[in-house]
């Protein structure tokens, strides 16, 4: 099959890590007989340099017309970059927000997987880690308190700030369906996280998720309060398969979950909307401190490309081939500097990409 991919290399380490993901995808093309057609799209700092804005209309249309978007990272050294002296809507990250909004990407998927080979990087005790954990956080991305009305006012000398948390049933239903769909491809368990003992929006969340669950008889659904979930993530992360939650809870819990996997250079993500189209990017930023030095770990981006194959193109086997290749490279003892420890072979960005591609 032919697939059209909009590629946004971005800034800092972006071009280096995206090049490695394309290298690995190249091996998938050869082995499985697919064709990936890439269109480079400028976004972020580089777009500011070339066009004066972080995302042009043309770039957005190219992304919209693609089958999916593969992104490195955007942004510069925030304290020391020409891009940050200007209005917020002209900064690199504004391009990313405009793109997510422009593509209506309401579902953010962040897997938190502990590789056996990286167990020593996990801050949890061995008896808690056991054989490791493998979960996915499905976070609602375009609703809730981050998008509600907000204001600060002063009345009779009292300063009052307000942020409103709103969800409607349709917003909840569409993310819940995504969560259950992913659970069907995994261990068939959904933990829906809310604060239904306090919040009306959470009571609606719980009601709608329960309704959606009726269409997924094979999937076990449990409800968990968010404070308990925060505790359970460190107490027994092995119990989770898919965590389904609203925007702010997902923001906080996904950071907690990522920390227990050990390294930021390993974590992939996908942002999806109503169609098969998605945007795939590592969870980390543009790492200006190590840019251009062949030091960045490309694995998060390579695993994001695997997610693209699985979620946008339904190429499960091909996605699995990439994931297995990553595990094999770790088993074979190769480490980029962020995951390096005694007794392993240190490799650069480019070599890590070669090693993974070789194992496809
Ligand atoms: P960062 O994630 O870029 O870097 C944090 C630390 O992790 C740095 O020490 C960096 O060297 C290291 N690191 C990150 N990715 C790595 C990798 N693949 N391999 C090895 N080490 C890695 O976060 P920071 O420094 O807060 O932000 C830098 C820039 O990135 C800022 O302009 C920020 O706004 C932007 N950013 C962009 C994102 C995106 O494009 N989605 C997400 C987060 C930040
Ligand atoms: Mg966050």
From TrEMBL:
Catalytic reactions on record: (2R,3S)-3-isopropylmalate + NAD(+) = 4-methyl-2-oxopentanoate + CO2 + NADH
Cofactor binding note: Binds 1 Mg(2+) or Mn(2+) ion per subunit.
Amino-acid positions noted as binding substrate in the UniProt annotation, renumbered to this chain: 100, 110, 139, 227
A GO biological-process term: L-leucine biosynthetic process
Cellular localization per UniProt: Cytoplasm
Necessary cofactors: Mg(2+); Mn(2+)
Organism domain of life: Bacteria
GO MF annotation, one: NAD binding
Enzyme class: oxidoreductase
InterPro entries in alphabetical order: IsoCit/isopropylmalate_DH_CS, IsoPropMal-DH-like_dom, Isopropylmalate_DH
UniProt family annotation: Belongs to the isocitrate and isopropylmalate dehydrogenases family. LeuB type 1 subfamily.
Protein name: 3-isopropylmalate dehydrogenase
């Amino acid at each position: 099959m032919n697939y059209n991919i909009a590629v946004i290399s971005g800034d800092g380490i972006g071009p280096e890590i995206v090049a490695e993901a394309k290298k690995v995808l190249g091996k998938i093309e050869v082995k499985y007989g697919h064709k990936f057609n890439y269109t480079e799209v400028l976004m972020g700092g580089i777009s500011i340099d070339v066009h004066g804005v972080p995302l042009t209309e043309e770039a957005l249309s190219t992304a919209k017309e693609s089958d999916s978007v593969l992104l490195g990272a955007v942004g510069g050294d925030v304290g020391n970059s020409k891009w940050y002296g200007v209005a917020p809507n002209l900064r690199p990250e504004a391009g990313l927000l405009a793109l997510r909004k422009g593509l209506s990407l309401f579902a953010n998927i962040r897997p938190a997987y502990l590789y056996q080979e990286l167990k020593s990087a996990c801050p949890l005790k061995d008896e808690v880690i056991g054989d490791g954990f493998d979960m996915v956080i499905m976070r609602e991305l375009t609703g809730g308190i981050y998008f509600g009305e907000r204001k600060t006012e002063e009345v009779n000398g009292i300063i009052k700030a307000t942020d409103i948390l709103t969800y409607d049933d349709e917003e909840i239903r569409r993310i819940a369906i995504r969560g259950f769909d992913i659970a069907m491809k995994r261990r068939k368990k959904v933990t829906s996280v809310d604060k239904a003992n306090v919040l009306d929006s959470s009571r609606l969340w719980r009601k709608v998720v329960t309704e959606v669950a009726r269409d997924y008889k094979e999937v076990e659904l449990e409800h968990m309060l968010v404070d308990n979930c925060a505790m359970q993530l460190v107490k027994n992360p092995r119990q989770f398969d898919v965590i389904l939650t609203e925007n702010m809870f997902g923001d906080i819990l996904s950071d907690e979950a990522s920390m227990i996997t050990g390294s930021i250079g390993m974590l992939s993500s996908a942002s999806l909307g109503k169609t098969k189209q998605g945007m795939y990017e590592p969870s980390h930023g543009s790492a200006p401190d190590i840019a251009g030095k062949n030091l960045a770990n490309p694995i998060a981006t390579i695993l994001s490309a695997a997610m693209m194959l699985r979620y946008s193109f339904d190429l499960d086997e091909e996605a699995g081939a990439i994931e297995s290749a990553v595990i094999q490279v770790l088993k074979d003892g190769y480490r980029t500097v962020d995951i390096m420890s005694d007794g392993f072979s240190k490799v650069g960005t480019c070599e890590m990409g070669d090693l993974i591609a070789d194992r496809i």
